[in-house]
Amino acid sequence: MSSPLRREDVAYVAKLARLTLSEAQLDLFTEQLGQVLEHANDMNALDLDDVVPTAHPFGLVNVVRDDEVRPSLDHDKVMAMAPDAQDGRFAVPRILGEAP
Amino acid sequence: MNSAEQIARDVQSGSMSATSVLEMSLDAIRARNEELNVFLYVDEEGALEAATKIDARVANGENVGPLAGVPVALKDNLCQDGIPTTCSSKILEGWRPPYNATVVDRLLAAGAVPVGKTNLDEFAMGSSTENSAFGPTRNPLNPSRVPGGSSGGSAAAVAADMTPLALGSDTGGSIRQPAALCGLVGMKPSYGLVSRYGLVAFASSLDQIGPLTKSVTDAAMLLEAIAGHDVLDSTSLPEPAPSLVAHVNDGVAGKRIGLVRELVDGADEDVVASVERAVEALREAGATIVELSVPEFRLGLSAYYLIAPAEASSNLARFDGVRYGLRVNEGDVTAMMEATRTAGFGEEVKRRIMLGTYALSAGYYDAYYGQALKVRTLTIDAFARAYEQADLLLGATTPSVAFEFGSKTSNPMAMYLSDVFTIPSNLSGEPAISVPFGTGEAGLPTGVQLLGPGRSEAQLFAAARVLEIANG
Known about the structure:
The structure holds two protein chains of two kinds.
Chain A: H1 7-16, H2 23-44, H3 75-79, E1 85-86, E2 89-90
Helix pairs in contact in A: 1-2
Chain B: H1 4-13, H2 18-36, E1 39-42, H3 44-59, E2 71-75, H4 102-109, E3 113-118, H5 152-159, E4 165-170, H6 176-181, E5 185-188, E6 208-213, H7 216-226, E7 256-260, H8 269-284, E8 288-292, H9 297-315, H10 333-344, H11 347-360, H12 365-389, E9 392-396, H13 412-416, H14 423-428, E10 432-439, E11 445-451, H15 457-471
Parallel strand pairs in B: 2-3, 2-4, 7-8, 7-9
Antiparallel strand pairs in B: 1-3, 4-6, 5-6, 5-10, 9-11, 10-11
Helix pairs in contact in B: 2-3, 7-15, 9-11, 9-12
């Protein structure tokens, strides 16, 4: 698959990634990311239909520890690093609109 | 500065105090840190406290541990309780982790003295340490050249005799490449040998913590101290730390070592010449050299630069201004997150997040990420075939000696090519070591790389030791 990256693709991906790109950055990233994807096209020339993908070198299995109470991170110490906190909870700007 | 081996022996025997060793380390940092920009934070107070305790324990007749009183530098993507940890990113400026990485706990248990946090390419993304939000690190051997990256600060700390030991992390070559460029020993261990708990994640299926040191024995000592199962990392190998130091002088007699064409082709002449001399040294020490071709290694770079950014785009989603680090207040919560990430991440990090998000997005997932995972399988199978013909593999670590500042920053693809020889071992999860061997352009060191199958660290150290002795 050789899809030269379009500027609108880059703008859409920036939105997904929660990044604001300037006009100049959009142009630059369109070109640079296109180069990396072009390099990746050497993989697309291969017939890999029968190859099993590897997402992890050891084939992860879920590891569950014994269900016993153990000390966890100190609550106050963790909250002290929060950009904004209220009543021991992380505070964020409004998520939902005003009640009707 | 003496080797870690020597320091630990002197401190444990009482012939030298941990506090006096620390003072030498701090003096060396004071002398050159401003020029080289190696440490982002030096914990003088904490280090002095640790060293004082060690001296008291020695005076009390206690066995302090294998790294008694040895100063160690930590790459600034490793968490140490209460010590600023930035990943060289503005998005974490001022953050102090509420816990120790497992490797930090194990260093302390072994009697080591952590002295501070070293510069890196932001979130370990880079091969020159030029991507740091806090300025580049200079190569102590030639300050007009890069130290390599992303563990460039850790490499420079050891090369400048600031600390005898440093920890780095290696996702695509980030320990081995700076080790080669700074004339050091650097190892990426088998995936899972060292706990990643407390290492800020870049690409979780590839990241591994490992040692940067001046000697092979020091690297083996450091790895032995930090390796072994950890319940806090579910990808940690379920076995105790292997015995490594005891095997350093095992040699290579009777071993088959595969010289891999794809790990040499494309390297500069001076680097190729060093690899050829390494072949002779190993042969003289009794190894049989087998010439091999592993064409799949050439595909590794393409697969890596989709897999690593894909994992990074997911891992770095956590930096959203809610729980820690920077917050830029703007409008609703989504606007706040976008403003925070836009202000907090540097350009290379944004480039990789973009690349990874694209490779994982609907319509492109199979063509890019899916295809890359299949190439990863091809790489693993190719390694397995190579290990039917050879016990260990040999090649260059990097295509060139340390390069000039700015020579690759405008072309990301040129920078990515610095990792072409180191990436295959990250894809397979197998260990590899870079050992300084010979010199090249401008009298700078060249690195030779030895690669082995999973859990072959002891054999790799033994082969590296043969080269170390031959290098004089």
